[in-house]
Amino acid sequence: MNDNIQSDRDSRASWPNGGTDLPLPGRSILLESGDALPPAADMLDGPVQSAYDGIDRMADVAAPTVRQLAEGAAAAEVALRVKATQLRESSDQWVDSARAKVRGSPLVAIVAAVALGAMVGRLARSAR
Hints:
The chain has 128 residues and is mostly helical. Helix content is 69%, strand content 3%. It is built from two helices and two strands. The chain has helices spanning 39-104, 106-127, and strands at residues 12-13, 22-23. A hairpin with an 8-residue loop joins β1 (12-13) and β2. The two termini are 76 Å apart. The relative contact order is 0.03.
């Protein structure tokens, strides 16, 4: 057994009013069958019930707001998906257009690529 657990005999306390030694609260909060609730438990019933009622009221107030936030998030997701699809289609159109121009006049495309490369090289060299 565990040496740190005191026996029932060692868990008695002397009360300042000179009353009999009473056992300290047990290690378990479970009541024996047929035992009445201690007076402290009866005193806590009201505040505990008030706390439960307050939590229920806050949940009732928060529920519509949470629902609205969820609906707003769902609408934003749909809008973002639509925009992403539009951007993907737009970029596909640009790539197709550039491919058609290169195929139409490949020499102009090569000269344009060399000129663009020279400009980027100069900008990179002057940035150092």
